[in-house]
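## tool: complex_structure
## caller: assistant
## args:
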Amino acid sequence: MAETMQFDLVSPERSLMSAQVKSVQIPGADGDMTAMPNHAPLITTLRPGILTVETDKGTEEFVVTGGFAEMGEGLSVLAERAVPTKDVDQTTYETMVDEAHAAYQQTKETFQNEPGPVDDAAKLLADMVAVGGRIGLSPKQPNL
Amino acid sequence: MPNLKDLKTRIASVKSTRKITKAMQMVAAAKLRRAQDAAEMARPYTERFNAVMAALASSVGDSDSAPKLLSGTGKEDVHLLVVLTAERGLCGGFNANIAKLAKQKARELKGQGKTVKILTVGKKGRDAMKRDYGDLFVGHIDLSDVKRIGYADAQGIAKDVLGRFDAGEFDVATIFFAEFVNVVSQIPTAQQIIPAAYEADEDASDSASTLYDYEPDEESILADLLPRGVATQIFAALLENGASEQGARMSAMDNATRNAGEMIDKLTIEYNRSRQAVITNELIEIISGAEAL
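## result:
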């Protein structure tokens, strides 16, 4: 049996998963990373993407919209919103994209002369759109 | 002495009141269980969040680059009081207690010459504060359409508060809510949310000393997490409030049901006595009539 570590996935409303796992693939803000047992302590923020958890019994996937992950003795992912991939249908996905789009529009208005935050919001939106393709739904292209 | 018919109608009306309060109590009990579950579910998130924030806050410390949400604006002249209450009444002293605590705090701050602004969440709190501090209101958030409090609602409130903070409208924000202890006791609580006060738990001191790698750097993580922290704290407070409200309503309705029961007993005795008096009276009349013959 491969080495395992404690993994918790919690959203503000409930705890989605708490189990011993072999590895977890995290959509980190600076790029995807795979966390395995005995990883160095790390705190990272998440971008919208897919979190893949590998356990002894197989893999599970979740769509997360943001949040952060903390690696200490185990791994805890605190997601702003997390939904098991199989529960995401086209409507849920489109709502998520719309929310990201609304956030983007708002940032664009607030920071008119600062490209920094606007670019960040645009990236979040693009990530959210890309999630659709990854989970086999037709990506929704918002009008920019 | 009231006549028999009056007593009878009163007994009937108190009985139907008892039915209503009994039903409300049972509804509150069912809702309480749901609210408690929701609060329970949210706890792991809040706990971990606070642990991570404590670790981050201690590593960034009081450096000049620390974000304003953590270190404050450097002044504390303008205070924002966010009063979280229920949308509905008939829950004992629940709303009144929160409002009382907020009023007391407002009076204290005014006594120290600070400016006070009030943001109310929940209709009952607004009504209770309006008479004394209506001129200090800067806004009201209505949650009466919300059936079940979600994180999105907390985010909405947090956004409102953070928007005001960014616009420099206040220096210190405090939220008022009732902490749920058990069904009979809910403690009105004041908690400062801006600047954020994260303290490491005693048993978390081991993990706080762990040297974390940060990706991206600490400051951008902190800048990302602090606004979320405000939302998380408001969400936790809303959930506590939800459980407290139902708990308070349950015990208030339990009392009301019991009082109604006592009243029915008293009225029934009175009814029986006066009926007996009427019978005795009639008997006396008949007997004395017979004797007179």
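## assistant note: Residues 180 and 186 of chain B are 5 Å apart (CA to CA). The beta strands of chain B are 78-84, 115-121, 137-141, 172-182, 185-194, 213-215. Handing back to user.
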